Structures are given as structure tokens and as C-alpha cells.
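From the pipeline queue, job 12 of 40. The input is one protein chain; the requested action is below.

Action: predict structure.
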Amino acid sequence: MEFVTDHKPGARLSVGGVPIHDLLATRLADLVGRILVRIQQEVAAYRTLPIEELRGDIAAISQDVLRAFIRGLREERAPNAEELAQVGQSAARRAEEGFPLEAVLSAYHVGVREILRTATADACPGDLADVLAANERALRFLEAITAAVTSGYLDEVRTKVGQEHNARRTLLSALLDGGPADAVFRSAGIMPPARYLVLSLAVGPHPDEAMPGVDAAIALRRKVRRLLGELDHATAGSALSSVDGVGGVVLVPTELSEVDWTRWTAVIERASRSAGAPITAALELAEPAAVPAAATRTADVLDVVRWFDRAPGLYRLDDILVEYQLTRPGVARDRLAALLEPLDAHPDLLETAQCYLAHDLNRRRTASLLHVHPNTVDYRLRRIHELTGIDPTHPAGIPRLTAALAARRAAT
């Protein structure tokens, strides 16, 4: 259905013979009051604001916006740059306060509806053309206001997020480097916690990263975003993190004196499911001054877990004490690694040893994975014994071969 109107471009919009801009101007103070009441009634977030803010900033911007609309009607123009700048600055203040954007936008819609309700309350059938034109003007006005609000709000959010991000990164670096962090804590507006959960992560690939035709970079960023989202949820956004597509470190402030291992095992499992990638993690509790040593230790734990082909999941040093000690630098480690030097010229033997140990000494499983006959596996195990003096099939030889492989990996 199409409305046919008699409103002529350039003619002043009127209701009952009174120009709408004059009608609104004479009722300005009363209208601002009604707009504020309606905003509080219809937008719950505004009911939480201090009364002085409602009577101050919110009342002031409501009056400014109403006057801009009146001037636009009188001068037959859209809001100008100065008027829109006022709206953007007001939105920036709401962003600085942490007030929700959706509430701010809803308030402007409520305000424009109240303006139209007041402007057209006394309209009669003969005013239809002007009423329709006024509605069109109001919608265009609201469109411009919405853009200004969104731009002002998001600019402030980006600035605030950038500052917070830089402060948190600086704090993370200071804690990991072992430098004085008191000044950094103050600049970041963060109270120093009693301790940190120091979490080192190794993140495997998501299947999409190797999928033909899929942008691997996007798949990687999506994986990281989901991983960090799960960690943010688990830590209420308090964690300091430096995580990329393959891993990193996370510091979680805590006042607890013990680690809830059951909870954090579940957190890592959820993060792995959310990211769609295997995650291996090492966790230790440390006071702020001990964070550098704890971060080094948890990174070492991850290395040992990898060297011994452990399954993804959460680990602590106690889980791998023997393996950890076997891989520490020293004469013993060097001699263990040297035991396998005769296999340097036989990469197939070294591969067989690794596969055989990783799959619980199951020769048939090893043969299947290596695509050889089980008899070939038997032959290779005998050759390993001949070349190194270590018998992979004897109970005494198994831990010796395991330790030698771990020492070799740690030394390279």
C-alpha cells in the first residue's frame, strides 16, 4: 500500500497549523523530563545509574539531542558534525564507565519515540502528510545518531582495551623476567595477588589448519580465540596470557595455597574440546617473585612430557619426576644419549625403538604403524641390541632404552 501525501518539500512540518519545531521547543523542559522517565522505565540499565548522573550527564545529552532535532526541523537539515560530536563524546563517557552499548542505543530509540509521540499527539487527518514526513525525518535523525553513538563508544572501548592490553602485557613480561613489578601493578590498576598459577601450554594443530582450501591462518586464530575464551571464562578474565597457535604461558592470580588439580584438569579438557586441538599443559603454584623459575620449570615439564610421548592433558612435576631427572643436563645425561650413537646411521632402527616403546612394547602394533612385517620388527630389535648393548625385549633393557631416548631428545 502506498500513501499519497500533499507535503511539499521545503514547507515547514506542522500539526494543527503549528510548526512541529515550535511545538517541541515550547515543551522542551517537560519533554526532557518525560524522556528520562521513559528511559528508566524501558531500559533497565538506566535504573542502576546514580541519580546525579541521570539529572546531570543523561539529562544534558537528552536536551542537546532534542535541541538538535528541533534545529534540524527548523533548518531542514540533518544533524551537523558538531551535534554528532556531542553525541559521540557522551557515548564515549558511557563506554569509559563500562555502561552497556545496547542500553545507550535503546535509550536513544526510546527518546525519539517520545519526541514523535509528543509532536503528533494533536494531529488530525489533514496532518497526515506532515506526520509521515516527520516520521521519516526522525528515522533519518536516529540513523545518524546511532552511527555517532556506536563510533564514539567503540573508539573509547578500543582505546581502553588497548591500554589495558598493553598494561597487562607489560605486567606479564615483568613477572616472567623477574623484574620489579610493583610500579607495573599500580599502573595496571591491579592489586598484587598472593600467588600465581603458572600454566605452560603446548597446543596441537586443529584439523582445519591442514584442510585443503581452508585458510590455515584463520583456522589457527579461531583455535586460539576459543582456547583463550575458555581460559577467560575459567579465570573470570583475570589471567595474564601470552598464547599463540602452538602454545604459551598463562598466569592466573590466586589467593589459594593449593592447586585444585581436579578443576584445572577439567579446564584443560574443556579448552581442548573448545579449541578442537590437543592441549598439553604443566601447572605450578608460585609467589610473584618465584614466577620466572616456575615458568621455566613448567616449560621443562612440557618438554619431558613430549620427549616421553605422553598423552595430552595436565601435568605437574610430580607426575614425571624420574623422567624429569633423567633429562637434566650433566655427565650422566650425555652418556645416556651417547649409548644410541650407533643408531645414527640406522634411522629405521631408531624409529622402531621409539614406536615400540610408545606403544607398550606391542610388536604387532609397532609393525602395523611402521608398515612392516612383525618379523622385521623382531629383526630390528635384535640389531638395536647388537649395536648398543641394550636389549629392548628384556625387562632390564626397557628403562635403559627409554632413558637413553629421552636423554638424546633433551640433548638435541
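Job complete. Residues 128-177 form the longest helix (50 residues).
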